[in-house]
User: Fold this.
Amino acid sequence: MQTYLRGRDLIGDLDFSKEEVETVLEVAFDLKRKRATNEPTPYLRDKVLAMLFFFSSTRTRGSFEAGMAHLGGHAAFIESKTTQIAHGDTPKEIGEIFGRYFDGIAIRHVDWGVGNKYLNEVAKYSRVPVLNMQCDVYHPFQCLADLMTIIEKKGRDLRRKKMVVSWAYAASYQKPMSVPQSLVLQMPRFGMDIVLAHPPEFRLMPEIMEQAQEQARKFGVGFEVMDDMEKAFQGADIIYAKSWGAMVHTPDAEKGAEIIKKYSHWITDEKKMALAKPDAIYMHPLPADRNIEVTDGVMDGLQSVVYDEAENRMHVQEAVMALTMS
Ligand code: CP
Assistant:
């Protein structure tokens, strides 16, 4: 068991080794049990987390804020527009200065081609851990919560389980591709066979695909890519279908929106779910475009585990904060 995570950043999914992720999960399960039995968990008494948001959030803000309170500390919500960042505060200033005020700096910055670079620049100058609340490349805490949820529903031996990571249609906006990228990087390490399905224009970043395929080879699991949602769903144990933008194909948002319109049939509905195994689970990080991206019947149906996923965000985040910020 790798327990020494004090002072570490979590920006990319592979920043923690498989053994370190296992430690995070063990601590998260313990924290979940303690919360259920009302046992106090004051591991971060008097510690303060800065939560710097460049983009909106429901779950991430709520779960980090509640998590810090459960650990006996405090989380400071900082909306970037209310800061002096627009007037000249650079990532160096944020890293140097917030690193002196706070015991951890959590950042959400999903702007394409900007967010991940920003987090890494802050981390370079920060003396305290930098935690990625989602950037343009990764969403590591979502992925850890997803892994915890899969273990709860499917057991610890996930070898030969078929996990489908599928693109889905959504008209609201070009969503970041960080969730599918985190999933294809992390899940092969835990034995699942990955099937990635998306229309041709929605490919993931080539460097992420290379790393994901390398992980799949290293851990001896399957890794298939296809452009057929129905075919992908066949015989699956885990369906994870969500929308993301066509940023790799075109950085032009208007062109991307035009492309999305071609694929409105990529909706997760009851007919497609019936192609998966009868005990398959349906996963989504939320928010979802209801009855566009996924039907109410699937989202609110017996196979859906979306609320457990959302809850587990809090437990894995508490675990990482307790391990890195204590
Ligand atoms: N899944 C997720 O990150 O949700 P929010 O965007 O609401 O934080």
About this structure: The chain is about 40% helix and 15% strand.
